[in-house]
Design brief:
InterPro entries: VPS16, Vps16_C, Vps16_C_sf, Vps16_N. By secondary structure, the protein is an alpha+beta fold. Helices cover 46% and strands 20% of the residues. 36% of the residues are buried.
Length: 841
C-alpha cells in the first residue's frame, strides 16, 4: 500500500492530491501547444488545435490547420482553415466546436470536422473587431462572451437560442482589461473584469465596482482569474503574487496564498471534487505547476514540456505533446483504505482478502477484528466506493474482490450497490480505452452529471455504434432508448456515404433495422433527402409503415403524385385532403383534374370538399367528366342556393332539365320541367291572389288555395299537374276541417261518391273534436268499416249490433275492448251471448 501512495501529495493536514497518467499521446504534434489555439471539451471530451492561427498567407501550405483529436490523441478530423482569423476556440455542451473569428462570426463544426452552421455576434462586433472571447457553459446551454475593440462586451447565454446582450459600458475603460471571466449567478450570466486594482461586475442592467473581502494590501493589478466548474467559487491572482480564493459572489473569502511568484501564470483553474470541504486552485507557468489551497504549503510539479489545463467537475486534466494526466483530490474512501498504517475497516478487509488468497490464517484475524467492531458493512461499502474512484482495472478488481469477500460474512447486505458498481466500471473501462478516448471518472458518470443517455450520444457522435449497442445490451436498456436509437443514428450516417449505391444502402439499412421498434424510416429518409439523395429517400420510405410519416416527406420532395397514392392506400381522408390541397397549389388546373381522374377515391373526396367550399370547381369537374346527371343535380341546388329572382331560378332549372335529358334520365327531366311550371304558376298566383305561394310544394300550393277559398283554382291545379282524386280529396278534406267549414265539407262530401270512402271524414271530424259532424258521416261508411266508425263516434251499442249482425269475431273483440264495466255492461253481456250462440251452432 505504501508504494501505491507514492504519488500522493498532501495539501495541509486533511487532503491528498494525486496525479496519474490517462494516456500516452501519440498525436505527433510538430508545433508546441503555445503556438496553437487550444480547446478541450470537459467530461473527457475531444481536443481541438488550430495550428498557425496567426498566419495570413493565402498559400495552401501556410494556411492554418484545424485538427480535432480524441482525449487519447487519436485523430478525428483535420481541415485547412479557409475562413477569417480566429480569436478563440471552445466546445459546446453538445460537443460542437465553436470558432470565434475576428469579425464576430462564430463558425460551428462537428466532431468530425463537418460544418454545421454559423452566426454573428452583431454589427457592432463586426465594426470594432473581436479582441478576446470566452465560451462558457450554464444550465441553459453553451454561451459566448465577446470583448470588442471598443472595449465593450457582448454576450449570448445560449448559442442554441441566440439572444445577444450588449453589456453596460465600464466607466473610463480605455484599454483591454488585464483579465476577465464569465460568471453565472442566480441564472444570470455576468462578466467580471479587472482594470488595474479595480474589479467590475457587469450584468444586463448595470456596471458595479466590487471589492474582494480580505484582499491583501498593495495590489495594483489582477493578472489572472478563474471561476470554478460549478460557478460557485472564484480565484484571483494579483501582481503581488497572492492568490485570493472566495465565493463567486465576492461576499466571502475562503483563503489567501502567497506563491512568491509575480509573473503572470499561463493558466489558473480550480481543482476540487463535489461534496468536499477542501478547495484548491491549480496554477501553471511555463515549466511549473502549483496546487494551492487553505494550507501554508503548496504542491509543486515540474512540467517537462508545454502543457494545457482542462478543468473538470472533480479535478484537472493536464495534457502535453507526450502525455495526458489527471490531477485530483484523493477521495475519502481511497484515502481511508490506502493511507499508510490505516486501520479503517476497508483497509483491514482488503488485507484480509489478500491474506485469504495466500491461504494465510491472518485473513481470519483481520476479519474477526472488523466483526468485533461491527464495521463489516462499512468495510464492504468502502471497498465498493473506492473501486469506483480507481483508474486501473487491476486495482478495481482487487477492491471488488475484497467487497465480495466481505459480503459472504453478512446476512442481509443489499447487492444493488455492488452490482451497479461492477456494471458502471465495465462501461467506464470500455470508454476509457485508448481507441475510444473518453476518460470519464466515476463521479462524473454516476452523479447524474453525464447520464448513460448522454454517454451513448457521445459514442454515436464518434460513430462508435458497435460499442454503444454493446453497452445498451449489457445494461439492458429499453430498445427505444437504447439499441433502436443507436441504429437510427447509424442509418442516418449510412445515407451520407455517397460512394455506395442507393439500392445497396437501402437494403443494408432494412436488413439491419427490420421492424425494430422505435426506429422511424421517415427520419432516416429525411436525412437522405437532406444529403441530396432523393431516390434513396423514396426507397427508404417504402419501409415506413406509417403513411402519416411518408406523405409529408414525399410532398417536401415534390413527389406529390406518389404522396397521393400513399395517402389513398392509408385510408386516412385527412391525409388525402392534405395532399389534394398541396397538388391544387402545385399543378395547373388541367393537370390537377387529370390526376384526379386516375384516382377515383381522391376524386370523390375532392368533390365532397368542393360541395362545401368551391361550387364552381365542382361544376368544372362534372363538365370535364361529362357527368350530366350530377351536373343536373348541381344546377338544381344552385337554382335555390344562389338565385333569388324567379327568372334566374327557372333558367337554372332549364339548364338542369337539359342536363338530365343528356343523361337520359327522363323522369328527372320531366320532374324538373314540372317544377318550372309550378314556379311560374306560383308567381302568377301571387300576382293575382296575393299571399305566399313561391317555393311551396305542389300539395302545399293546393292546400293554400283551398284554405283561401279558391276551390276551382285548386281543382284546376290538380288537373294541370295530374294530382290523383284520392290525394285531392284528402287535401280538401284536411283543409276544410282545419277551417272548420263544416257546411262546405258536407257539400263536398255530397258532390260525388268519395274515392276515399267516408271513414276519413269521421276521423278528421273527431280529430277536430266535432262528434256531431262525425255522426253524419258514420252512417254513410261502408259495412266493412262501419264498426270502426261507430266506435270512433262513441256509439258502442250500435257498433255491437252491427258486429253481431256481421258475425265477425274480430269486430266483436274490438267492440268488447271498448266496453267499460260501468256503462256498457249490458252491451258486453249481449256480445258474450252472441258468441255463445255462435259456438252452439
Amino acid at each position: 500500500m505504501d508504494c501505491y501512495t507514492a504519488n500522493w501529495n498532501p495539501l495541509g493536514d486533511s487532503a491528498f492530491y494525486r496525479k496519474y497518467e490517462l494516456y500516452s499521446m501519440d498525436w505527433d504534434l510538430k508545433e508546441e501547444l503555445r503556438d496553437c489555439l487550444v480547446a478541450a471539451a470537459p467530461y473527457g471530451g475531444p481536443i481541438a488545435l488550430l495550428r498557425n492561427p496567426w498566419r495570413k498567407e493565402k498559400t495552401a501550405s501556410m494556411r492554418p490547420v484545424l485538427d480535432i483529436y480524441s482525449a487519447s490523441g487519436m485523430p478525428l478530423a483535420s481541415l485547412l482553415w479557409k475562413s477569417g482569423p480566429v480569436v478563440s476556440l471552445g466546445w459546446s455542451a453538445e460537443e460542437e466546436l465553436l470558432c470565434v473569428q475576428e469579425d464576430g462570426a462564430v463558425l460551428v463544426y462537428g466532431l468530425h470536422g463537418d460544418f454545421r452552421r454559423h452566426f454573428s455576434m452583431g454589427n457592432e462586433v463586426l465594426q470594432n473587431r473581436v479582441l478576446d472571447a470566452r465560451i462558457f457553459h450554464t444550465e441553459f446551454g453553451s454561451g459566448v462572451a465577446i470583448l470588442t475593440g471598443a472595449h465593450r462586451f457582448t454576450l449570448s447565454a445560449n448559442v442554441g437560442d441566440l439572444k445577444l446582450r450588449r453589456m453596460p459600458e465600464v466607466p473610463g475603460l480605455q484599454s483591454a482589461p488585464s483579465c476577465w471571466t464569465t460568471l453565472c449567478q442566480d441564472r444570470v450570466a455576468q462578466i467580471l473584469l479587472a482594470v488595474g486594482p479595480d474589479l467590475y461586475l457587469l450584468d444586463h442592467a448595470a456596471c458595479s465596482a466590487v471589492t474582494p473581502p480580505g484582499l491583501a494590501p498593495g495590489v495594483s493589478s489582477f493578472l489572472q482569474m478563474a471561476v470554478s466548474f460549478t460557478y460557485r467559487h472564484l480565484a484571483l491572482f494579483t501582481d503581488t503574487g497572492y492568490i485570493w480564493m472566495g465565493t463567486a459572489s465576492l461576499k466571502e473569502k475562503l483563503c489567501e496564498f502567497n506563491c512568491n511568484i509575480r509573473a503572470p501564470p499561463k493558466q489558473m483553474v480550480w481543482c476540487s471534487r463535489p461534496r468536499s470541504k477542501e478547495r484548491a486552485v491549480v496554477v501553471a507557468w511555463e515549466r511549473r505547476l502549483m496546487v494551492v489551497g487553505d494550507a501554508p504549503e503548496s504542491i509543486q510539479f515540474v512540467l517537462d514540456e508545454d502543457s494545457y489545463l482542462v478543468p473538470e467537475l472533480d479535478g484537472v486534466r493536464i495534457f502535453s505533446r507526450s502525455t495526458h494526466e489527471f490531477l485530483h483530490e484523493v477521495p475519502v474512501a481511497s484515502e481511508e483504505i490506502f493511507k499508510i498504517a490505516s486501520m479503517a475497516p476497508g483497509a483491514l478487509l482488503l488485507e484480509a482478502q489478500k491474506e485469504y488468497e495466500k491461504e494465510s490464517q491472518k485473513a481470519d484475524e483481520y476479519l474477526r477484528e472488523i466483526q468485533e467492531l461491527g464495521q463489516l458493512t462499512q468495510a464492504v461499502q468502502q471497498c465498493i466506493e473506492a473501486a469506483g474512484h480507481e483508474h486501473q482495472p487491476d486495482m478495481q478488481k482487487s477492491l471488488l474482490r475484497a467487497a465480495s469477500f466481505g459480503k459472504c460474512f453478512l446476512d442481509r447486505f443489499p447487492p444493488d450497490s455492488f452490482v451497479h458498481m461492477c456494471q458502471d466500471l465495465r462501461v467506464l473501462n470500455a470508454v476509457r480505452d485508448y481507441h475510444i478516448g473518453i476518460p470519464l471518472t466515476y463521479r462524473k458518470y454516476r452523479y447524474k452529471q453525464l447520464t448513460i443517455q448522454v454517454l451513448l450520444d457521445r459514442l454515436v457522435l464518434r460513430r462508435l455504434y458497435p460499442l454503444a449497442i454493446q453497452i445498451c445490451e449489457y445494461l439492458r436498456l429499453p430498445e427505444v432508448q437504447g439499441v433502436s436509437r443507436i441504429l437510427a443514428h447509424w442509418a442516418c450516417y449510412k445515407v451520407q456515404q455517397k460512394d455506395v449505391s442507393d439500392e445497396d444502402v437501402a437494403r443494408a439499412i432494412n436488413q439491419k433495422l427490420g421492424d425494430t421498434p422505435g426506429v422511424s424510416y421517415s427520419d432516416i429518409a429525411a436525412r437522405a433527402y437532406g444529403c441530396g439523395r432523393t431516390e434513396l429517400a423514396i426507397k427508404l420510405l417504402e419501409y415506413e409503415p406509417r403513411s402519416g410519416e411518408q406523405v409529408p416527406l414525399l410532398l417536401k420532395m415534390k413527389r406529390s403524385k406518389l404522396a397521393l397514392s400513399k395517402a389513398i392506400e392509408s385510408g386516412d381522408t385527412d391525409l388525402v385532403f392534405t395532399v389534394l390541397l398541396h397538388l391544387k397549389n402545385e399543378l395547373n388546373r388541367g393537370d390537377f383534374f387529370m390526376t384526379l381522374r386516375n384516382q377515383p377515391m381522391a376524386l370523390s373526396l375532392y368533390r365532397q370538399f368542393c360541395k362545401h367550399q368551391e361550387l364552381e370547381t365542382l361544376k368544372d369537374l362534372y363538365n370535364q367528366d361529362d357527368n350530366h346527371q350530377e351536373l343536373g343535380s348541381f344546377h338544381i341546388r344552385a337554382s335555390y342556393a344562389a338565385e333569388e329572382r324567379i327568372e334566374g331560378r327557372v333558367a337554372a332549372l332549364q339548364t338542369a332539365a337539359d342536363a338530365f335529358y343528356k343523361a337520359k334520365n327522363e323522369f328527372a327531366a320531366k320532374a324538373t320541367e314540372d317544377q318550372m311550371r309550378l314556379l311560374r304558376l306560383q308567381r302568377r298566383l301571387e300576382d293575382e291572389l296575393g299571399g305566399q305561394f313561391l317555393d311551396l310544394s305542389l300539395h302545399d300550393t293546393a292546400t293554400t288555395l283551398i284554405l283561401g277559398g279558391h276551390n276551382k283554382r285548386a281543382e284546376q291545379l290538380a288537373r294541370d299537374f295530374r294530382i290523383p282524386d284520392k290525394r285531392l280529396w284528402w287535401l280538401k278534406l284536411t283543409a276544410l276541417a282545419d277551417l272548420e267549414d263544416w257546411e262546405e265539407l258536407e257539400k263536398f262530401s255530397k258532390s260525388k261518391k268519395s274515392p276515399i270512402g267516408y271513414l276519413p271524414f269521421v276521423e278528421i271530424c273527431m280529430k277536430q273534436h266535432n262528434k256531431y259532424e262525425a255522426k253524419k258521416y258514420a252512417s254513410r261508411v261502408g259495412p266493412e268499416q262501419k264498426v270502426k266508425a261507430l266506435l270512433l263516434v262513441g256509439d258502442v251499442a250500435q257498433a255491437a249490433d252491427v258486429a253481431i249482425e256481421h258475425r265477425n269475431e274480430a269486430e266483436l273483440s274490438l267492440v268488447l275492448s271498448h266496453c267499460t264495466g260501468a256503462t256498457d255492461g249490458a252491451t258486453a253481456d249481449k256480445i258474450q251471448r252472441a258468441r255463445a250462440q255462435a259456438q252452439k251452432k
